[in-house]
Amino acid sequence: MSEDARARLARAQGRVVASLVAGAPPPEGFDAGRLGVQAAALVAKRRGVVARLRPDAARAAGPALAAEFAAYAAARTVPPPGYRADADDFAAWLGARGLMPAGKPRRWTRLFRRDRG
């Protein structure tokens, strides 16, 4: 594959990723509905892991967790680098909105790892 072809492929892949995680319009030739479904699934996956890593944040959001996390995710052009950062950023986002109680959070990583294996 030529360098030019690789560069075109990389740009095309970047547009797909931007559509999935940053709300960018779908690239030409892609089904907007299907990309939307996949983007929602990725947000739901992130939300589930974040809720396991920071159950205090999930409790603070309460029944509005799905809506709060969707709003948080939509407010970012790029997800944080890793689930722990995502969980802590979500808790901080809730705190800035007055939904998260003040105080130092309990760390749940060890419990999460124990549950996973």
Automatic annotation (TrEMBL):
The SCO6045-like C-terminal domain, residue ranges: 10-95
Q: Which Pfam families match?
A: SCO6045_C (PF26136)
Protein name from the UniProt record:
SCO6045-like C-terminal domain-containing protein
Its lineage opens with:
Bacteria, Bacillati, Actinomycetota, Actinomycetes, Streptosporangiales
